Structures are given as C-alpha cells and as structure tokens.
Amino acid sequence: MNAHTPKREPTPYAESAEGQVVAVCISKRKGTRKKNVGKGKVVEEFGFQCDAHACSDTHRQVSLLALERIEECREKGFDVNPGDFAENITTEGFDLDSLPVGSRIAIGDDVVLEITQRGKVCHNPCAIYHRMGKCIMPERGIFARIIAGGTLEVDQTIKVTT
C-alpha cells in the first residue's frame, strides 16, 4: 500500500457520503494494466484524454474501482496496486458498491460522472486475468459516462450528487 493511502473502511452510501481519489490511471492499450499518472483531463461524453478506453460511442467511458477491493486481493496474496485492474479512477473511503445505475457523482470542482454499469462480461481473458488468474472488474468494477469534464487528480473529493 502507498504511504498516502491509509486503509479505511468505505463510507456507507448516503447523499452526503464523501471519499477521495487515490489514483488516476490511463493506458495506451485495452486489456492491460493502467499507469497511475496522478492527474488527467476527462472530456464530456468521451473519457480520459490519451486513454485506450475513451470513446463517445460507449456508456463505459471511464471505470472506477475502490481501493478497498484492491486491498481484499492483497489480503489473498496478490501483489496489486491501483491501475492493475485497468480502472481509470481508484477511490478510497467511498462506497462505490452501493451506487445504483443512474447515480451521479462529483469529483473535485468540475467533473460529474453518471454510473451506467456495474460489473462487466469478460469475453476473453484479459492480461490482468492471465497475470493474476482473476480479474475483479466483472464483479466489482463500476463504469460511467462523463456528464461534465475537467481535470481529475489524486486527493480530490468524490461525492454523490443525485
């Protein structure tokens, strides 16, 4: 675990619930681990600039995963970090698991995301699956579209808006 990411339990879901962004990750190719770049620009109805998954023709423009889920994998002996499951945004202290599809979340002062999908079907085992023998995104990944773009960076607050 990184020094700046202390282990905390997720905040129970409520409209006033807040957490924070602990990693902002991108990759050049789909199906691979993403690199924590610390800061990135998200474009309305598109996704992260310079990320392989950015596309205006999909409802999965960005992906989110809770650090607490990554820590569960660590407890099982896996050497994993934010970005290793190809998520764009790693959160901490925020109960992503309770957010229903259609919920909107704000990150920092500008970015607004709308949750569009919980989990996904992996048709072919990805690089993450081959490396670890398991990928948690089909069960724990959260996908969203960009309602309002802007700069997204580590340590920003994330909260439910609707």
What do these coordinates show?
The chain is mainly beta and 162 residues long. It has one domain (27-160): PK beta-barrel domain-like (M1 Pyruvate Kinase, Domain 3, Beta Barrel). The chain is built from three helices and eleven strands; from the N terminus they run E-E-E-E-E-H-E-E-E-H-H-E-E-E. The protein has helices at residues 67-75, 127-132, 137-140; strands at residues 18-26, 35-36, 39-43, 47-48, 62-66, 89-92, 104-107, 111-118, 142-148, 150-153, 157-160. The strands form two sheets. A seven-stranded mixed barrel has the order 1-6-5-9-8-7-11. The chain has a three-stranded antiparallel β-sheet with strand order 4-3-10, with no helix packed on it. A hairpin with a 3-residue loop joins strand 3 and strand 4 (47-48). It is globular.
